[in-house]
Specification:
Number of helices: 5
Order of helices and strands: HEEEHHEEHEEHEEEE
Helix content: 25-40%
Shape: elongated
Number of strands: 11
Low-confidence stretches: 1-6, 8-33
Distance between the termini: 62 Å
Radius of gyration: 32 Å
């Protein structure tokens, strides 16, 4: 009885092992066929480089509130000389400073039940200040220091700076060339085992560019365009179809 069961187990094991081998061969053939089609091979190449931003845009708001519109407006405009002095003394040129439009809105009294009433108790005024400078390190420094103006009665709401790289278009073209060259090198390595050589390029399709912080491995199907970091990693991807000799 036990010998019969053992034989059945051996037969089942052999059947499962054979099925696994067949599946592995089919999967391998599928992988090969995905890269090799008749007399051509499709390869993906990539290239990346670290670049340094050469300009920055930084916005922050100054705010004031008072019982009347006039008082709130005067409180807001009285902050401008203090903010200007801070920026200029820190090294920002006047031409790099832009005061944008003023926004205002009423504040309403809240009822005991927590709902807002129609009774106006004051007005808020706010204005956005925009800094556009090529000194990205200075922008980074001031973004961290400007909250200190609260000691002078200035209410500040600072936004994260945006750091930009003006040579991005040329860099993209350069990296695309390198990515295509990388694809050719990969194709050569793949064809070594078959004693074939890489032929002419039949088609090239550019993938999306990923612009990320240097230590990031994040990717997106739609591409990433990071503006939060001064240093950025620009990555290009090229999908190339080569003929086979």
């Amino acid at each position: 009885m036990f010998e019969k069961v053992a034989r059945i187990q051996i037969i089942l094991f052999a059947f499962v092992l054979g099925a696994c081998l067949i599946f592995a061969l089919i999967a391998s053939a599928k992988v090969i066929s995905n890269n090799f089609s008749k007399d051509e091979i499709t390869v993906t190449g990539s290239a990346s480089e670290i670049v340094t931003s050469d300009s920055g845009v930084w916005r922050f708001q100054i705010k004031a509130q008072a019982p009347t519109r006039g008082e709130a407006y005067r409180a807001l405009t009285s902050q401008k000389p203090v903010v200007l002095a801070f920026l200029k003394n820190s090294g920002i040129k006047e031409a790099e400073i832009e005061f944008l439009g003023i926004n205002d809105y009423a504040r309403y009294k809240t009822a005991p039940n927590g709902f807002s009433t129609q009774e106006v108790i004051g007005y808020n005024y706010e204005q956005t200040v925009k800094i556009n400078s090529k000194d990205v390190e200075l922008i980074k420094k001031l973004h961290l220091e400007i909250p200190s103006l609260i000691e002078k009665g200035i209410v500040i709401n600072s936004f994260e700076p945006n750091y930009l790289y003006s040579g991005l278009s040329d860099k993209k073209a350069e990296l695309l060339q390198k990515a295509t060259a990388d694809a050719k090198m990969r194709a050569k390595e793949m064809l070594k085992a078959t004693n074939n050589r890489v032929g002419k390029i039949r088609s090239v399709r550019m993938g999306v560019f990923q612009i990320t912080p240097p230590d990031s491995n994040e990717v997106s199907d739609w591409g990433i365009n990071d503006t939060s970091s001064i240093e950025k990693k620009v990555t290009a991807v090229s999908n190339v179809v080569f003929g086979i000799k």
